[in-house]
Amino acid sequence: YFIRVHGLTTAEMGVYGAFAIGLGGGLGTLSGLLCERLRGRIAFPESALMLTSLSLLVPTLWLVVFLPDPRAALAGMFLLGFLAYAWLAPTIRLIQDGAGTERRSLAIATCGGIGIFIGQGFGLPLTGELSDRLTPIYGAAAIGYALCVIIPAAAAIGLASHWAIRRRHARVSTDKRAS
Predict the structure, then answer these.
(1) What is the four-CA torsion angle of 81, 61, 117, 140, rounded to 10 degrees?
(2) Which H helix or E strand runs over 167?
(3) Between the N and C ends of the chain, which has fewer C-beta atoms within 10 Å?
(4) Residues 24-41: tens digit of each pLDDT
(5) How many Cβ atoms from other residues are within 10 Å of residue 41's Cβ?
(6) Separation of alpha carbons 78 and 104, rounded Å
């Protein structure tokens, strides 16, 4: 996107992308520490953090895609990297809480494998296909528009899933207190 729309070179995008995705994403993975700090203050901090990060992801993506200044868009990409990787620690914690000790590693591997299969097997080809179809209308910016369709669709699935998980946790917690 940045190469096509903002005219960055591959080398420039490599440096900026490494910073935005590497550092931003790396900091996002520390979300588990935030969950631990919030534990006891809010119910089900992992689900709350997942819902918050997924809700903020789409508007941040739109900022990255629609900001005309490449520097501002790259700064937004840092925040996007942070939000995009904030799922990791809470997801692993939720899987560990839901799976028995003898099945935890398999459950985590299965979750990762399914995520990669869906993202790489469906997300990338769908984004490319949509970008190709939008290119006659939007030119080089079509890739950004395609991202603004595919990523919110994936985020909506994640939001629905984590909302269901949060409701289930609340129901189980209420049932345990009642017993």
Answers:
(1) -110
(2) helix 142-178
(3) C
(4) 999 998 998 999 999 889
(5) 7
(6) 31
